[in-house]
Design a protein that fits this description.
This protein is mainly alpha-helical. It is built from 7 helices and 4 strands, in the order ααααββααββα. About 20% of the residues are buried. Bound molecules: zinc ion (ZN).
Length: about 210
Amino acid sequence: MTPSKAKVKTHLAKIAEVIDTHKTAPQAALISKLNPIIRGWSNYYSTVVSKETFSKVDHLAYDKLRAWARTRGKGNINKDKYWRTVGDRNWCFSTENGIELTRHSDTPIVRHIKVKGVASPFDRNWTYWSKRRGEYPETPNRVASLIKRQKGICPHCGLYFTSTDIVEVDHIKPTSLGGKDTYDNLQLLHRHCHDTKTATDGSTRSKGSVKT
Ligand SMILES: [Zn+2]
């Protein structure tokens, strides 16, 4: 999806064509024709493009605008007529009424980390999830280790965990009966399975707190 050289070229050709057909049109008309083209293209590529590409395209578009101005000015680009300082930016292609050309680099670049559609934190693709885990602060290491050890299965009901299940860490031998808080005494259960187990394993559960 990264814009190839060819896509950049096609886009610039479109900009050039609009500029070409507005040789004698008012600057405002040219700007209002170009802005949606620039915005649309920039938004489309905003998740994959680099800042450098946007800047490069802006420069190339700017060259074409200079040529446009030079033609109208019979060799003089009339900088003060077509370009203004807006805020802290020099050389904004804009009218005196504040109609301003959008820059590609005005579009923020957004990075999405895509999760493969079928992978869930609880499936058996451990390598994938151990790589992802650092980006999932809500999946504590303890839970991730237990999922791996249990091969994604809840020992109480024997079913696989799914990404929407609520899971809890259980002490196999309840701490209230002397069970230790060590890995070999821990298991991951569905919350509802945990409730069932806790009701029958002789552990005491104080009201209002989740007993593991
Ligand atoms: Zn279960």
